[in-house]
Amino acid sequence: MPITYPGLFSSQAFTRAWAEGMPAERVVHIPTQQSVGESFYGVARRKFPGLWVTSLGPAGLYAAPNCAEADLPKVVAGILSHLRRVNQLKFTWTVRFDQPALARALIATGLLPQKTATHVIFLRGKSYEEIFGGFTKTIRYQVRKARQSDLVVREAVTPQDVADYYAVHQKLVTLKDRANPYLLELFLALCKLKQNVRLLMVERQQRIIAGGVFLLDGESVLYWHGAADREADSAYPTSLLIDEAIRWAISCGCTSFNLGASGGIKNLADFKSYWGAEMVENWKFQWVNPLWKPALKLLGRGE
């Protein structure tokens, strides 16, 4: 039996969509040296002429080969032998919190993990009513008030829907005076993967005031990206959005709903805990080619 459903973020379809929306990155096919199971993919960005940095999966998303637990040592060894090449400057591989066997297989090769925190609502065997009961009183109030209001939740179905959501995101980026790492083309490309990607939008009087991108990765839904109009905060559109996505995860038979990291921001971590989320740890593995370490230090780039 596979240790997991085929990892969405290391699939050909997802990495192709990612590279379509992030032109500086290319899809990398990585042989797994196994006779069964899906192929394994990542994305790579050129850092110097002839030297590449590879991510499994894109932008720190989780990556997992589809194989039996007993085959993990062989499969992982095959993947790493392909990656540890002269033209590889560095690679990063992030393992999801509920895949310890995969993390152990990577550790057995000599790679040392860095632990990264994420906030997870565990759904296995629970009804929506039980999950709702795990929300704080404040969150339950916000969800009920939003559902009784004139707010409407719907899924983006057209390119214009995606563009309208992106406009809300861009407005928030400008308000916070931050750089925008993602192009509209990335959201358009990802939203074509309708079986695994949902862009949910909250509307008031046919105007989008909030939205979020939710990714179905095997038995887990990840809240990957979100944006809201700050002027509409009093209507609690974000609480309605998250509640709707949790309902979707439960309907898909998922075992977890991943609210993502809080980046050390206490207010954000507190907000996620109000949903009954627990803080758990992922494993992040990095390998830097020893051939290029001296040159990187001379350039002042460290590792």
> In what range is the share of β-strand residues?
25-35%
Number of helices: 10
Order of helices and strands: HEEEHEHEHHEHHEEEHEHEH
Please give the share of residues in helix.
25-40%
Main sheet summary: 11 strands, mixed
Gap from first CA to last CA: 38 Å
**Rg value:** 20 Å
Count of individual beta strands: 11
Kindly state the mean pLDDT as a whole number? 91
Shape: globular
Query: How are the strands of the largest sheet arranged?
Result: 1-2-3-4-11-5-10-9-8-7-6
Structural class label = alpha+beta
Poorly predicted residue ranges = none
Descriptive report:
There is one protein chain. The protein has 303 residues and is α+β, with helices and mostly antiparallel strands. It contains 10 helices and 11 strands. An 11-stranded mixed sheet has the order 1-2-3-4-11-5-10-9-8-7-6. Helix 2 links the parallel strand 3 and strand 4. Helix 1 runs antiparallel to helix 7, helix 2 packs across helix 3 and helix 5 crosses helix 8. It is globular. The mean pLDDT is 91.
